[in-house]
Design goal:
The protein is mainly alpha-helical and 123 residues long. It is built from five helices and three strands; from the N terminus they run ααβααββα. The chain has one domain: Winged helix-like DNA-binding domain superfamily/Winged helix DNA-binding domain (Arc Repressor Mutant, subunit A, Orthogonal Bundle), CATH 1.10.10. Pfam families: HxlR.
């Protein structure tokens, strides 16, 4: 299957099956489910944030990783970047409709993890 970047990737399989390496669904799943991807999507689920706010909300993320993850999520259509022509420059990040949809799906998973993390790590 030809995709927009000109490469050929195998088609995604149905849910419950293993996605082959390089298929479009697996690539997007990697972006959304990465450690920082999940945290940024959840941080933005309560409204737009500036760079410094996102950095504080995603404690431990480096500037390089924040920039890289935001760029990836923006490229996938999950995050909107709004640059304002003011001095000093101001950039706000927010979720697109697609981003809101995926964040809503991530919330129950992350709530379950938070509820069970201590007992899981006690083992």
């Amino acid at each position: 299957m030809k995709v927009s970047d000109g490469s050929t990737r195998p088609p995604a399989l149905l849910v419950g099956q293993t996605y082959p390496a390089g298929c479009s669904a697996r690539i997007v799943l990697d972006h959304v489910s990465s450690k920082w991807g999940v945290l940024i999507l959840l941080a933005l689920s309560d409204g737009s944030h500036r760079w410094s706010e996102l950095r504080r909300r995603t404690d431990g993320i480096s500037e390089k990783m924040l920039a890289q993850t935001l760029k990836t999520l923006e490229g996938d259509g999950f995050v909107r970047r709004d640059a304002h022509a003011v001095i000093p420059p101001r950039v706000d990040y927010s979720l697109t409709g697609r981003g809101e949809e995926v964040a809503a799906l991530l919330k129950p998973l992350t709530e379950w993890v938070a509820e069970h993390a201590d007992e899981i790590l006690e083992r």
